[in-house]
Amino acid sequence: PSSLILLTVLPESTSFVLSLLLLVELPVLSTSHPTPKKLHKDGLPSLFEQMRWLLNLVQGALNNLDTELPFDRNIPSLPTIHSRPQDLAAVEANGTLSELSSGLNSFKLHLDWLLHWQNENGLESQETKKIAKHIQFINTMIHKQMPKLPPQSTTFSLPAPTSAWDMFQTSTIVLRRLQQFCDWYLRALRVLIHQVKQRQ
User: Which of 9, 19, 23, 160 is surrounded by the fewest CB atoms within 10 Å?
Assistant: First the structure.
């Protein structure tokens, strides 16, 4: 029987279109909801910078992969952004940080799965390790900002890869989805930062 690694399952995902996000920037800022006072004023800008660094790491890793190859692997457990660009007008801090933390936790578990099987096959990626480590760092930051966030799930099952090609597909798909995820939440954090400045 195929080996299984325990990780977290999130709802089934659909494809995410990055180009839609280009429609959004300043127009949404004036109608955004206020940010709760309990967030430290420096917390959101620091979180924004760490997410931007994470995006840089992911883009660097993707630059070393041939992402134009045809992939037939589906990973429904990966987080998906279901929001539309206009939804940025309604972001609020508590919900945004909670969803960001949950999504990052899921990506971390998928990357841990990859690292396990890469190590088993002598293919361990330093880039993947850096990304996983930075995700954990960001999630720690979020939990310091939001100490009452519920505990995150740490278990789920994903079948063992059947080949090096299977691992390559999985790695590329996870990184591309993480790139899209980072792009969305950087925009959401920018809105929240603007909210804080408006209240000062």
Answer: 19
